[in-house]
Amino acid sequence: MQNSKKYIDLVITKECNLVATYWDNGEKIQKTIGFSWYFLITKADYVSNEIVLKRLLSEYKRSGIRYKLEDDKWVRVYCKYPDRLTIIDKFKQLKIQTYEADLSLVRRYWLDKHCQIADPEQFTLLFIDIEVDDTISGLDIGKDRIISFAAKDNTGKEYQYVEENERQLLDNICALVKQYDIIIGWNSKKYDIPYILTRCQIYGIEFPNICHIDMMHRMIHAYRFDTNIRSFSLDNIANRFLGESKQERTTKVIEIYKTDFERFKLYNITDVRLLYNLNSKFKIIDILLKQIYWCNVTPRSLGQEGKGLYTLLDNLILRETHNRGDKGLSPKYTYDELDNMSAEELEKLDYPGGLVLDAVPGLYTNVYVFDFKTMYPSMILTSNIGFDTLDEKGDIKNPSGARFKSEPRSVLSTVVAELMTKRKEYKEKKLKLIEEGKKSTTEYEAVEADEVIVKELGNSVYGICGAKWGRYFSKREIVESITLMGQYLLNTLKDFFKEFDYTIITGDTDSIIISTPSPIDVNKHIDRYHEYLERRLLKECNITKSYISLAFDRHFDKFIIVAKKNYVGHLINQEGRSTDYIHIRGLSAVKSDTCVLAKRIVKELIELLLRTDKISADYIEWLTSYRHNIFDTITKEDLSIHKKIPRDLSSYKTKPLSVVIADEKVKREGYLLHKEIEYIVTGRRSEIIDGKHRNRLTGVETILSDGQFDKSYYWDNLILPNVSRLLTAVFPKVDWNEMTYNSFYQQRLL
Hints:
Elements: E1 6-12, E2 18-24, E3 27-33, E4 38-42, H1 43-48, H2 50-59, E5 66-69, E6 74-78, H3 84-93, H4 105-112, E7 116-117, E8 125-132, E9 146-153, E10 158-162, H5 166-177, E11 182-185, H6 192-203, E12 211-214, H7 215-222, H8 234-242, H9 253-259, H10 261-282, H11 284-295, H12 308-323, H13 335-339, H14 343-348, E13 356-357, E14 362-372, H15 375-383, E15 396-397, E16 403-404, H16 411-435, H17 442-459, H18 461-465, H19 477-498, E17 503-508, E18 511-515, H20 522-541, E19 550-563, E20 566-574, E21 577-585, H21 596-611, H22 616-629, H23 636-639, E22 641-644, H24 657-669, E23 676-689, E24 692-701, H25 711-730, H26 744-749
Parallel strand pairs: 1-7, 8-11, 11-12
Antiparallel strand pairs: 1-2, 2-3, 4-6, 5-6, 8-9, 9-10, 13-17, 14-18, 14-19, 15-16, 17-18, 19-20, 20-21, 22-23, 23-24
Helix pairs in contact: 8-10, 9-10, 11-17, 12-16, 15-16, 15-19, 16-17, 19-20, 21-25
């Protein structure tokens, strides 16, 4: 029976009760609930193991173990929540299959009581930021007092507390936070929240148990493939996407606090304004709230450790499973079991990945890219992959060798079909709104957000099946059937294009890149491939209906590939629309830590290679000329190398130049902002290390540069390797790597 309440949050207490926050008839209520946790076994297993199971009642009496018949198929096994892992492990030792033993007390209650999450607009949000006394250098969570707290809520209301009395400050923070449903920060999972919690513990203050979201993690997830983003610091992201920046500072926070109080307050409040503005533009939290509403889970259940999408999909799949009177398998492996496995044991759990066809380096003309639309979901539908359809006598023979029944539709296929249908509906709604001139409306934004959600969920089904700690890895035939069918499809595509004598340049998982002697009709080729694939699926897999769909992606008139996932081309058509720009993937021209000078030269070379017909001699002359005068008119910004420092400086046994310079900065100024450094290589010095003479690079932080730099380093290590990769692919007979700064060959050319 559907629960009429609209839940904001559901959280477990130290006493293993539940605290529910929900809306009921316009009133926001918080209530403590008692609930007994359980997992399940089949009635058949209970009957066949009844003697030993009854013995457990006395053996684990303190754990409160008891059994309850749910229906004619399932038996519930209750126990005290803190003792659940011991009881589950005992059942594993007895080789009795358990079901849904991985569900937390919160998720068990949620599913059993058919709880309904609140509407997205019913949540109240608070964006937060803290500043701490950084008199003593080094980042040690909770070491120094918090001196300021700034916040802004989803209505635009701002708060700021600056107190000499830290206890009063923390009391003010707690009182404010209690008024909201979700608090949001930037890198707050590792910094703001643990810092506040640690300082609260010192004073014996209990910080409210409020749901927290780290917006930085959401941005990293959304833009993880954008190679132009050199850093996910708030300053860099705000600057790139909003054209706004944090308040600049060249000294410690505490110095600003003491010498310019108003500027200090502005420094603190600016951060939450940036968070608010980023969310206003990208709807980051809005989309998250729509995701949880669509999948009916609490925002807290998403977590920050990579289990968010798993929880979303798991809820959808379990809901369909329960509708069929079935239960979800418990995971085969726990986190602890996986952590304690040897490398060899873990390797045995590995399964095949996506197929990558060998790249054939070179310069090509008339290049086409084709890819499979929603490949993983469509394969699940085509082969009817699922736990409930996996059967050695199944009529569908998956390319992996596993067999599946074609009827009825599996739970997994049902959920995937629903997601794909919804995505199609949202795409059609978007097109209709565009036709009606409503692209800039909130209605369009809402539909677009819905489409993003279902697309991400559909494409993540394969990922949750491969999570070794999840229930869907309990039968690894599932994930293997998905990956090996993907390999099969890419091979059928390669075979199809080979019949036309087209050149297969490379292929990766769900896409292929080919070169043709002359322009082709892409739609005719797609139709022919679908017919070709259907014949093969029927003959080789006994599949009578295919959901696989090939699509045209890109057309390049000239294209250079250096290695797999490293290429560049002049793009003239994308998904049927004419274009005219250079598309780069994986080369130094787009890598965030390449110096500006090297990027500029590589981009110039790319333009020449793709837009002219120069011969190798022209490029020898071009490179020679560059070598002769390239360093005459450059600035230190051209030479600056940007590096992230991912670990504590003290943890490096062998220190690369970036760490050496970062170390010098900390000793000089007391801190390293954003854990990154920009520097210029100035030369080399000879050192004796382990009794051997070694040359070590020397350098200086960019801001301190006096104009000195090592020409041979920049040419031989940053410029020549990047240009030679491209030139070697196009003109393989010339040894471009010999054109080093001081080489005899180079001198002779000069």
